[in-house]
Each structure stands twice: as structure tokens, then as C-alpha cells.
Specification:
Blueprint (H helix, E strand, L loop, with lengths): L11 H12 L7 E5 L7 H10 L6 E5 L8 H12 L19 E3 L6 H12 L9 E3 L7 H13 L5 E3 L6 H10 L11 E3 L7 H13 L5 E3 L6 H12 L8 E3 L7 H13 L5 E3 L6 H12 L7 E3 L6 H13 L8 E3 L12 H8 L4
Helix pairs in contact: 1-2, 2-3, 3-4, 4-5, 5-6, 6-7, 7-8, 8-9, 9-10, 10-11
């Protein structure tokens, strides 16, 4: 058994070394990850001041940070404000800039709704236009925080990836974020990850609308939700829209049964953009297999279909594999079914882009 990787907290001396490297514009320091670091009183101000004069750092990840008597939420929002490039450094929507932070990750910091509102406000500032990727995974964000994020999405046009997994936004909160991507309100987000947020049918309806009207959305994660058959039908309707450009859809653990599977399978006959579809741990059953087998034979785009834990049995899985490999799509296929289904993860849009070179 390989040794377990352990990430130890760094002390004040190590933190001082990090600050000096940032201040010195160390060319080798482009990606900074700090976990369980005790910044102490004034630590956020010190880090923000160092970032203000830095031009080499591209990615900053702070998780489970401690800060003495300082307010963690206020400190993190201050980093967002000062760490990005100055106003005018980039044209809006241009992700190829060469200065300023582009990737910010603040997972596991208990931001809550108030802290999320502060970070959202900071992301709307003119100095935040370099930021392309934001990760707020596991921050206790509720429906009110989700509304703040939705308003942020309506107000800015430079964020490409938003990771909000494992929060408590519930059905209404997830739906509000998805509605911000509908009908042209936000055209910059390409990758939206909302799994493990107790989403339901309201979220699925909003997802179907976003998928069907937002041609910029390329990847959507709604895993571990409760969208069920009605929600799957709403999403399937979005997949059949002429405006749909979605390439990766993650619907693992979504409580979908035969009727929902049939709706999704039927959408594959019309959809020509989806590359990766994950339906792990839903209930496909015999009728679902019949529909999937028929429509996959006519699909020309799908190259990855994950259906582990779907109770289709070995024979059912073999039928699905034959239908994918026998389809008119001649690209390399990946079809997964087996005991190690929980280790299989669907492609992200960035990984698909690297392999297929299909994104413009």
C-alpha cells in the first residue's frame, strides 16, 4: 500500500519565507498552495500587500486558513481585490493575459453567506478582470450566498470556471446561479460545478434553460442531486436546443430512473455537441438500455459514457459498449462499468479541450 500523502501546516517562519518570495517576484513561484496555515494577526494584510507588488504568481489556493483575530472572509475578499491585474490590463473575456492572478481557490474556509457576499462583491471590481477560475468548494454557502454569486455572474464577464461543490445552496440557490447563465445574462462561464448541493427539480429546469440558451456553457456538474426523472427530462430538452454547445454533463447519483434515462437517451439522437455523459449510480434498467442502445448508434459526438453502479448488469453494459463502439462516431470511446465506478470521474471541459482541441 503506497504511503499516504500528508499536508502539514506551515509555521510563521515558513510563511515569512513565502512572503519574501512573493515580494521578490520569484519567477519560480507561479502556483502557491497553503493549507492549514496560521496567518496570525495582520497576516491577510501582509499577504495582500505582497501580492499587490507581485507580477509572477498565477494561481493562489488557501484552504482551512487561520488568522488570529482577523476576519477570514474579509481577508479573503481583500486578496481578490488586490491580487488581480490593474484595470485595463485585459480585454474582457480574454483569458490569455500575462500578468495577475488567473486562478483563485479558497476551499474549506467556512465563508458562509456573508463571506461569499464579500468575495462576490470583490469579484465585480475593475481589478478582478484577470481572474478566470474560482473555487469555493466546501464553504458552507447557503441560498443567500448563492444569490450573491448569481448577482456577481450577471455583473461581470471574465470568469470561466466556477467550482461550488459541497455547499448547502439547496434547490433554490443552485437554480438562481443557473438562471444567471440563461438568456445571455452571462456568456463567460464555460465550466460550472454545482455537485453535492441538494439540487432538485427547480435546479434541473434552470439547468435545461441554461444549456439550451447559453452557447458558452461547455461543462455542467450536477452530481449527487435529486433531480429525478422530471429534472432529467428538463435537461434533455435543453440538450436538444440548436443553441446548446454543452460538451460534458455529470449527472451521477441524481435519482434518475427509467423515464428520465429514456428522455436523456432520446436527446442524444438530436444533440451533436456532447462528448462526455456520466450517469453513474442511476437506475437505467432494461427499457433504458434499449433506448440508449438505439440512440447511441445514431450519435456522432459522444466519446465517453459512464454508467457504473447503474444496475444494468454485465450483459447490459456489453450492449451499451457495442452500441457506442458501433456508432457512426469513429473517435476513441471510453465506456466504464465495474466495481471501481466510484474511482471513475467524467472529463472536465479543459481535459476534453486538451485531447480534442475542439474549443475556440
Amino acid at each position: 500500500m503506497p504511503p499516504r500523502k500528508v499536508i502539514l501546516p506551515i509555521g510563521k517562519e515558513q510563511f515569512r519565507t513565502v512572503i519574501n518570495r512573493i515580494l521578490g517576484n520569484d519567477a519560480s513561484l507561479t502556483n502557491l498552495k497553503l493549507k492549514k496555515v496560521d496567518l496570525g494577526d495582520g497576516g491577510f494584510s501582509e499577504l495582500a500587500s505582497a501580492l499587490r507588488s507581485n507580477s509572477t504568481l498565477r494561481s493562489l489556493k488557501l484552504s482551512s486558513v487561520l488568522s488570529g483575530s482577523d476576519d477570514v472572509a474579509a481577508g479573503l475578499s481583500s486578496l481578490v481585490e488586490v491580487a488581480a491585474a490593474p484595470p485595463g490590463e485585459y480585454a474582457e473575456g480574454d483569458g490569455d493575459g500575462d500578468a495577475g492572478l488567473t486562478n483563485i481557490a479558497f476551499p474549506e474556509n467556512s465563508l458562509g453567506d456573508l463571506g461569499t457576499a464579500r468575495v462576490s462583491e470583490a469579484l465585480c471590481s475593475p481589478g478582478a478582470t484577470s481572474i478566470r477560475h474560482l473555487n469555493l468548494n466546501r464553504n458552507g454557502i447557503g441560498p443567500t450566498g448563492a444569490e450573491s454569486l448569481a448577482e456577481m455572474l450577471r455583473s461581470q464577464s471574465w470568469l470561466n470556471t466556477l467550482v461550488l461543490r459541497n455547499n448547502q445552496m439547496n434547490d433554490g440557490g443552485v437554480a438562481s446561479i443557473l438562471r444567471a447563465l440563461s438568456n445571455g445574462e452571462n456568456r463567460s462561464v464555460k465550466d460550472l460545478r454545482l455537485g453535492s448541493n441538494v439540487a432538485g427539480t427547480e435546479s434541473a429546469k434552470a439547468a435545461g434553460l441554461a444549456i439550451g440558451t447559453n452557447g458558452s456553457l461547455l461543462a455542467l456538474d450536477l452530481a449527487r442531486s435529486s433531480i429525478k426523472d422530471d429534472g432529467a427530462s428538463s435537461i434533455a430538452a435543453g440538450l436538444q436546443s440548436d443553441t446548446c454547445r454543452l460538451q460534458s454533463l455529470d449527472l451521477r447519483w441524481c435519482g434518475i430512473y427509467t423515464d428520465g434515462i429514456v428522455s436523456l437517451a432520446q436527446s442524444l439522437k438530436v444533440n451533436s455537441t456532447l462528448i462526455s455523459l456520466s450517469l453513474d449510480d442511476n437506475n437505467i434498467k432494461e427499457r433504458g438500455i434499449d433506448e440508449i442502445e438505439e440512440y447511441l448508434l445514431n450519435n456522432e459526438s459522444l466519446i465517453e459514457f459512464l454508467h457504473n453502479g447503474c444496475r444494468v448488469g454485465v450483459k447490459g453494459s456489453q450492449r451499451i459498449k457495442r452500441s457506442v463502439w458501433g456508432s457512426r462516431n469513429a473517435k476513441v470511446k471510453r465506456v466504464e462499468y465495474g466495481k471501481d465506478w466510484d474511482k471513475m470521474k467524467p472529463m472536465t471541459w479543459s481535459r476534453i479541450a486538451a485531447q480534442q482541441n475542439r474549443f475556440v
